[in-house]
Design goal:
178 residues, binds inosinic acid
């Protein structure tokens, strides 16, 4: 296959080994905190699919899973303040111990929206588990209960994260020059 000239340059930021170590630690913490209970993990699509798949294999809890897909208006890499639900939940949230599984928190708009959306549905508890956070980019405050990595203000791809739908399948998390 021909390489496109416009392929952005990538540099590995977190290797697949580092990611595995971090996801195992998050799973261990969740296992301790939810011992004897059956939390509902709500994965925010599409970016968190790989994180979720690894996390639930390591977590050793009787978790239940649901998915929500949200979208910011527009295709830009900078998410605007307007978020909407593209694909809603299939399980009731009321009375459940919910853990939101997010790939990345950038400005915070998406996660703040998802947390608000779920809180309105009256879960028994609501926690947030995030693989990667870019705190210097935050506009809306987001309280992260379980955090994997803190990343610099760079655009990241891989391990679920995309640039225009590409690179989600990379096993490492890389930065790209836009
Ligand atoms: P927000 O700015 O915190 O609302 O992030 C919105 C969404 O933008 C995230 O859920 C990701 O889907 C996407 N996003 C933010 N930063 C990155 C990045 O560095 N790489 C890939 N996607 C990102
Ligand atoms: Mg996302």
């Amino acid at each position: 296959m021909e390489e496109e000239d416009s392929e952005p340059e990538r540099k590995v930021l977190f290797t697949s080994r580092q990611i595995e170590g971090t996801v195992r630690k998050l799973a261990e913490k969740l296992k301790q905190d939810y011992q004897g209970r059956c939390p509902l993990f709500v994965s925010v699509l599409k970016g968190s699919f790989m994180f979720l798949a690894d996390l639930v294999r390591f977590v050793e809890l009787p978790v239940e899973l649901d998915f929500i897909r949200v979208s910011s208006y527009g295709q830009s890499t900078l998410s605007g303040g307007k978020v909407r639900v593209v694909h809603g939940l299939s399980l009731p949230v009321a009375g459940r111990e919910v853990v939101v599984i997010e790939d990345i928190v950038d400005t915070g708009y998406t996660t703040a929206f998802v947390i608000d959306y779920l809180r309105k549905r009256k879960p028994a508890s609501l926690k947030l588990c995030v693989l990667t956070s870019k705190p210097t980019r935050r506009i809306l405050p987001v309280n992260i209960d379980y955090l994997g990595f803190t990343a610099p203000d760079k655009f990241l791809v891989g391990y679920g994260l995309d640039y225009a739908e590409k690179f989600r399948n990379l096993p490492d998390i890389c930065t790209i020059e836009e």
